[in-house]
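step: validate -> pass
step: tokenize input -> pass
step: predict -> running
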Amino acid sequence: MMAAKEKEVEICDEFCVHPHITPADMPDEDVTRAMAELFKTFGDPTRLRILAALSRQELCVCDIADLLSMTQSAISHQLRVLKQQELVRFRRDGKTVYYSLADSHVETILSQGLEHVCEPDRQ
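step: predict -> pass
step: emit ->
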């Protein structure tokens, strides 16, 4: 059990402002709002599992549904969200639609997140 002291946030003993960073150095509100939506998308375990599967190889909805033991309808719903955030792309091959990660940024976010939560000092 965590001690009460460990739960507290440390703050400065006196108020002081350091001039090395200014509001102009910060991303604007539209950018941070878009980032918040992006990270909210990553906040769903099912979507993370889909992205993890797609980081291994291109898959169709049937493959993903089978792999995650979910219905195609549930997978399609999550893929729609991922597509809206431009995290996945698709290609059609006859009657089959294959999904893959949209770009290397998505894979980087996934691998960095996984690395962070699996660090030995976090266990």
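step: describe -> Residues 40-123 form a domain with the Arc Repressor Mutant, subunit A fold (CATH 1.10.10.10).
step: cleanup -> pass
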